[in-house]
Amino acid sequence: MSESLDLSLLKGTPEQRAEVSAALLRTLKTKGCAKLKNHGIPDELVHRLFDQTRRFFSLPLEDKMLAKHPPEANPNRGYSFVGQESVSGISGFEKGLPQGKFVRDIKETVDYGSATDDLVENQWVPEEKIPGYRNFMEDFYDRCFKVELEILAALATALGISESDMVMLHNKAENEFRILHYPAIPASELADGTATRLAEHTDFGSITMLFQDSVGGLQVENQQNLGVFEGVESSNKTDIILNIGDSFQRLTNDTFRAACHRVTYPPTVKVGSDEVIPERYSIAYFAKPNRNASLFPFKKFITPNTPCLYEDITAWDYNNLRIAKLFGQAA
Ligand SMILES: O=C(O)CCC(=O)C(=O)O
Ligand SMILES: [Fe+2]
User: Fold this and answer.
1) I need a labelling partner for 221 at 20 to 30 A (CA). Which of 63, 107, 199, 234 fits?
2) Using CA atoms, how far apart are residues 268 and 284, in angstroms rounded to an integer?
């Protein structure tokens, strides 16, 4: 994966802004994801985000279950234990493939939304279990929202569409924020292909901003070489790893395609060996268009040569179509 892009240049001269926006678009279109540094969220807070995440997952299971996710997809809030959700149900979705074989994800997660969301509530463990946790997470969500809008505006510039239309489409912060823990596991347990850390998938929203620790194992499909998954280098956990989701693919009428990604063996561990794959933590912020917004492609992308590929659907209906496939398959 190429160098991290310097996001602070978005606040530089008009030339710097145009240059970094174009580089962002180019990297996403070729590599499938981009790494961003100087994004405005202080390093110290990213380190604390990992600390808080570790604290949550270190709680006993009965405490984590005090903030449990319901067994079904919605409301998509709260703690999902290992095995509750499996992403293989949507693996072929973006490529129009039928549902493939079921693969278990060996991960546990917690999903949050905006603190001001009036449709669904976040699930928190009691404050005394992890003092300061809720405040920290709510603040971090808000910080991600600010960065999200800057990135979306930059992408709009690079695509030649209205920045304000793009921002308006996302101004309600109806996003999702997910902490993930992949427990340590013998490599041999993943060897027969019935289980993995996180099965191949695309994200549903507009853009995803991801933080990963230094363990490694995240792979993204190269957009110029489909079928080839490249490891995302993991030495700097304060970098944001950015990728495009399906909603953006629809809005741009496939000018921009959502990149498939997955989490598997880190580069240091031999496939099927007796080694134990170390535990891994990551945090994903899924930026989504407002629930009531239409995902119909922007006019600019519908031309005689590029006819419209998509029916009209609201962001919320589309989200629910996708998320329904994630839960309840383990039985
Ligand atoms: O853990 C990771 O690095 C990736 C997480 C991810 O792709 C997701 O939650 O959608
Ligand atoms: Fe993802």
Assistant:
1) 107
2) 23
CA of 15 to the centre of ligand 2 (A): 32
Q: Is 63 exposed, middle or buried (0-12, 13-18, 19+ CB in 10 A)?
A: middle
> Half-sphere exposure of residue 178, counting CA atoms within 13 Å on the CB side?
21
Strands 276-277 vs 261-263: parallel, antiparallel or unpaired: unpaired
Structure token pair of residue 268: 């240091």
Distance 187 CA to ligand 2 centre (A): 22
Q: Is the ipTM of this complex over 0.95?
A: yes
pTM equals 0.95
- The stretch 237-254 carries a mean pLDDT of 96
Q: What integer pLDDT is reported at residue 121 of this predicted model?
A: 96
Q: Whose Cα sits closest to atom 5 in ligand 1?
A: 284
d(CA 3, CA 239): 11
Q: Which two tokens stand for residue 139?
A: 């603040």
